[in-house]
Specification:
The complex is a heterodimer of chains A (about 280) and B (about 180). Chain A has about 280 residues and is of the alpha+beta class. Chain A has 2 domains: about 1-65; about 115-275, Rod shape-determining protein MreC, domain 2 (Thrombin, subunit H, Beta Barrel). Chain A has 4 helices and 12 strands, in the order H-H-H-E-E-E-E-E-E-E-H-E-E-E-E-E. With about 180 residues, chain B is mainly α. Chain B has a single domain, classed as Arp2/3 complex 21 kDa subunit ARPC3. Chain B is globular and about 50 Å long. Chain B starts with 8 loop residues before the first helix and ends with a helix. Classes of the chains: A alpha+beta (about 280), B mainly alpha (about 180). Chains A and B meet through helix 1 and helix 2 of A and helix 1, helix 3 and helix 4 of B.
């Protein structure tokens, strides 16, 4: 048996293999790379790349099965996160809307520092088709009385038409029961704003008793004049949408688009008290 | 000259066939196999290739395969000490001689050869670990690295045996393969 280990072949190969062990090892310990080893690496690397690519594909394919549980858990976690984020976005939108409303509120207080305001939230809207009204969450216990004006930062909403202990009902400015004195912000032309059932469906009202030669144009902003003892002076009622001339009475009538659409509001302010300015 | 078999056309074809198959498993060894460690270790496929080739083609062929395969696998898949050319050459040579003159070729011999081969190779792994790490527990190394490596390598060696048996069938009669 020993003669196999004494053959020239074995001795030559043993020397070769010892050289191949010692040289790369010593070079590696010295921090150097053997040229022969590097050359082998260069030759083999294209094949390695191909196999690595195939391995990646196989690994990706098997990941589908082996990591299914992990991916399912991750999916659930991500769904939860998305849900929480959606809640956050929803809350942020609410806060943004509230912030805008408070800005308007602040601006209104600055402009009308004589107003005593009570903030209220719309709790319900009219249940019938012939009225434009809604219910607020404060009533006589909060000092609310009938005929108090209800406004937003954009302008007049309506007035308190019915009061309970903890609630009150508001009739819109387009209802017929109250007439409001108004004037053009641009030209100072005055008139009386009244509701009209035929216009109510389109949420419009009419400004009557305008002189035939008065300077009023479509787009003019109409403000409350303070006459009528409900609304204080200077609040926005709406804008002139169209003008009609009545030849018989020699007056004009303007169709007004109110500044505030009651269907789009959630919060309002009730003017509990204000200073009446007299000329 | 005994080295003249390199120039022999038949030997060259056999060398390329076994070498190509070993090269294929070597590429698997350094690309796909490390991606799927079992019990934290990857099996060594190359020693099985060397032993299978040695079993069918004899000690000289196994020795040459061992040197070449050991050198290439150390060049592309290892750093630091490079003991594989010597170890694989010895394993290939001895296994080839045993298969040629002492035992019948077959799965039983192959199983014995790879079991002994991988057990001894475990000590090479231990040498490599001691060269690369300052602090380690020998018990831990055996338990978590060497023994799992031996077990897995022996297990996977049957796959390699199957492929080498197919290649060997091209060059040997069924009678030769069994004796």
């Amino acid at each position: 048996m020993l003669h196999f280990f004494k053959s020239k072949f074995f001795i030559v190969l043993l020397i070769v293999s010892i050289v191949l062990v010692i040289v790369p090892s010593v070079l590696s310990i010295m921090g150097l790379s053997s040229y022969v080893r590097s050359a082998v690496g260069v030759v083999v690397s294209p094949f390695v790349r191909v196999f690595d690519y195939v391995s990646d594909s196989i690994h990706g394919f098997t990941d589908y099965f082996t990591e299914f549980d992990r991916l399912r858990d991750e999916n659930e976690e991500l769904k939860d996160r998305i849900s929480r984020m959606e809640d956050d976005i929803y809350n942020a939108k609410l806060l943004e809307a509230e912030n805008q409303w408070l800005y308007g509120f602040l601006d209104l207080r600055r402009t009308h520092d004589d107003f005593s305001l009570k903030e209220a939230t719309v709790t319900s809207r009219q249940a019938v088709n012939y009225l434009t009204s809604f219910t607020l969450d404060c009533g006589s216990m909060s000092g609310i009385e009938k005929d108090m004006p209800v406004i937003t930062a954009d302008g007049i909403v309506g007035y308190v038409s019915e009061v309970g202990a903890t609630w009150c009902k508001v009739s819109s400015i387009v209802e017929t029961s109250v007439s409001v004195g108004g004037y053009s912000d641009r030209s100072g032309v005055v008139g009386v704003i009244e509701g009209e059932f035929a216009l109510r469906d389109n949420f419009r009202c009419r400004m009557k008793y305008i002189d035939a030669d008065a300077d009023i144009k479509v787009g003019d902003r109409i403000l409350s004049s303070g006459l009528g003892e409900v609304y204080p002076r200077g609040l926005s009622i709406g804008t002139v949408e169209s003008i009609e001339l009545d030849p018989a009475s020699r007056t004009k009538t303007a169709i007004i688009k109110p500044s505030v659409d009651p269907d789009s509001i959630d919060k309002v302010m009730i003017i509990k008290d204000y200073t009446v300015y007299t000329e | 000259m005994q080295l003249k078999f390199f120039l022999d056309n038949d030997k060259l074809v056999r060398g390329l066939s076994y070498g190509g198959l070993t090269f294929f498993f070597m590429l698997l060894q350094i690309t796909l196999v490390p991606r799927y460690p079992i019990f934290g270790v990857s099996p060594d496929l190359i020693l099985s290739c060397v032993l299978a080739a040695a079993m069918y083609e004899g000690g000289k062929f196994g020795a040459v395969m061992g040197v070449a395969a050991g050198f290439v696998i150390d060049a592309v898949g290892s750093v630091g000490l490079s003991l594989s050319p010597l170890v694989y050459m010895l394993f290939g040579y001895i296994a080839g001689i045993c298969a040629e003159f002492l035992f019948r070729r077959g799965l039983l011999f192959f199983t014995i050869a790879v079991s002994i081969g991988y057990f001894l190779r475990g000590f090479v792994t231990l040498i490599n670990i001691s060269a690369a790490w300052n602090h380690y527990s020998t018990g831990y190394v055996f338990l978590r690295v060497i023994f799992p490596e031996i077990g897995l390598s022996v297990l996977f060696s049957y796959v390699i045996y199957f492929f080498f048996r197919l290649v060997a069938g091209k060059f040997h009669s069924s009678f030769e393969l069994k004796n």
